[in-house]
Amino acid sequence: MRQQRIEDIIKFLKENIEPLEDEAYGLGYRASVYLIDGTFLPCVIFRNPKTVVNLAIKRFKEEQKNTSIFSHSSGSGYYNIVKNFVTNGNCINDYDIDRVEKCKFAFPLSIQQQITGETTMGWTGFSVRMKDGKYFGFGTTFLFEFFQMPDGYSVDDIKEVINHSYVLKTGELRSHKVPFFDPPEDYKDSIIHRERPYFECYIDNL
Question: Which of 99, 95, 90, 121 is nearest to 38 (CA)?
Fold first, then answer.
């Protein structure tokens, strides 16, 4: 199979992947990627760079004018803003990609949109019911783009989301108190499938 060209990648993403909206970074197309050296990256988000570039320009201008929320906190706000945009995150180059395929760790948009609200500060716990009736617990701090899946299941097996809940090792579904300040006593007997780290790839004209 020949290496996909940029036009092929854009076409594949637009025809096969539901974009995830993000106010700060724009539309994100979640996929899996093989690099030209054979490396497999299971979780990659493709974006048009325009939104994040404009956001960076805006932040730089605010910091230079001392109008940002960080301008009076440490005296090094401008440096930290620039550092955040140019050194944080995991990025890959589009020309290093051999081919793109669907990702088995990205919830369908219809499922993603059922996850609502923090369970407690800095933590969102929820469960999913699979098409076979079994429940599995999930949880994340702030990242909702990709999740580890239970063995033998794919994201297409998910029937519904039960917010603010968790699942014990026995498969029993339990509800969280919202918000909670101390984890429930039986929380230690639960299995939580966590968010997965991911890479980003920016492509013009996407």
Answer: 99
